[in-house]
């Protein structure tokens, strides 16, 4: 697994200078190349270690890119049985309680997994209890977020999965809004 970060400044350091560690919070995007599913799992663990207890993760990518696989790996990183995490294509929403862990008190109380592919419009969100899901503590992972783009919170993480080989993926993690910018640096440094 290799990672890179894209700084927000248009100025590039000279080839002989490395950016100082304190510059990491200005990262706009973290790009990680994963050669296989095990590398995706390691990246999900890095993310789980630094995610706040309340965050929206908008996950997009082509069919078969591994959106649900990433959510499974994220769930496993916080003690949820990954076999219980399945694509919510037909049920639309799956709620997973995060088991309490004495050595990790900052974990979210739950992981909410939504598949927006079958939604026909923003009116469908009301039937899912969208406002409550967004307002309550926990991690909210939304597959096919472009289907409900107008309803997504300003502060969110966006994960784009790009297929680069049979089991290889390139993951692009971006933060929208200012509150989550430091998180990108934390992921890159983890």
Describe this structure in words.
With 190 residues, the chain is of the alpha/beta class. It has one domain (2-189): 3-Layer(aba) Sandwich (Rossmann fold). It is 24% helix and 29% strand. It has five helices and eight strands. The chain has helices at 37-50, 67-77, 123-128, 130-135, 181-189, and strands spanning 2-7, 27-34, 54-61, 93-97, 110-115, 138-143, 156-163, 169-176. The protein has an eight-stranded mixed sheet with strand order 1-2-8-7-3-6-5-4, covered by helices on one side. The longest helix has 14 residues, at 37-50. The chain is globular.
In short:
The protein has 190 residues and is α/β, with parallel strands linked by helices. 24% of the residues lie in helices and 29% in strands. It has one domain (2-189): Rossmann fold.
Which short descriptors sum up this protein?
Rossmann fold; 29% strand; 5 helices; 190 residues
